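Researcher: Sequence recovery benchmark, item below. Answer with residues only.
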């Protein structure tokens, strides 16, 4: 109950929750599509996916200005790499959301637009934003690695909610370093997971990769869960963001 209240207390929480439902619906209908006796269920799930997609666009109306204002703040960050990647990422995100607003007006019948054209424009700007976010994640990981090598990193307090990750990964020794990193730097870990999953979605929509609807649904669901963790756990949110 507390989780539900926390998610509904912010627009970001609602967006991440609805996004999870949207992509989970795509994952499920794709897996059921081959079964002829479940065509009605597949049709309903496609309607649910489309409805949540449209509702999320409505929920984000006006957010482009908020993101643009955020870009003005990141211009003053002392770290050069963070200043460049975050500022450019916000500019790309602003343009992505602006195109997203136009698509919503088109879906609502308020403006006659070429939906396919604007969808490609939106995905191009989204892709640019994700690439910059991944560059920032790589920079954060490199910085952490350098600190570890120099033994300059401060002691890290591991969250009780992350203790299970190492236990799960014990069966696969190769994953233990990843588990340790996730426990100690969950903000960078979840942000990296989110962006690594997200990048394939615009790449697929733009035709650069050929992933199935089910794979896109799975990646979107994982990405949304990583975003939900950051909303529920402030220490899992990468800052500055």
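Model:
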């Amino acid at each position: 109950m507390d989780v539900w209240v926390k998610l509904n207390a912010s627009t970001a929480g609602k967006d991440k929750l609805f996004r999870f439902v949207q992509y989970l619906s795509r994952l499920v209908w794709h897996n059921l599509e081959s079964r002829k006796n479940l065509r009605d269920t597949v049709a309903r799930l496609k309607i649910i996916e489309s409805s949540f997609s449209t509702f999320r666009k409505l929920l984000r109306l006006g957010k482009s200005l908020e993101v643009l204002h955020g870009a003005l703040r990141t211009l003053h960050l002392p770290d050069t790499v963070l200043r460049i990647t975050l500022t450019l990422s916000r500019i790309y995100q602003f343009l992505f959301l602006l195109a997203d607003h136009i698509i919503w007006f088109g879906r609502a019948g308020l403006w006659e637009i070429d939906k396919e054209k604007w969808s490609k424009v939106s995905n191009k700007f989204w892709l640019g934003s994700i690439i910059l976010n991944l560059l920032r994640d790589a920079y954060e990981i490199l910085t952490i690695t350098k600190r570890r090598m120099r033994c300059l990193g401060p002691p890290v307090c591991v969250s009780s909610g992350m203790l299970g990750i190492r236990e799960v990964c014990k069966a696969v020794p190769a994953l233990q370093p990843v588990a340790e990193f996730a426990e100690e730097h969950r903000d960078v870990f979840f942000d990296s997971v989110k962006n690594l999953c997200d990048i394939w979605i615009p790449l697929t929509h733009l035709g650069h990769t050929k992933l199935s609807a089910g794979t896109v649904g799975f990646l979107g669901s994982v990405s949304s869960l990583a975003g939900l963790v950051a909303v529920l756990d402030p220490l899992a949110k990468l800052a500055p963001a």
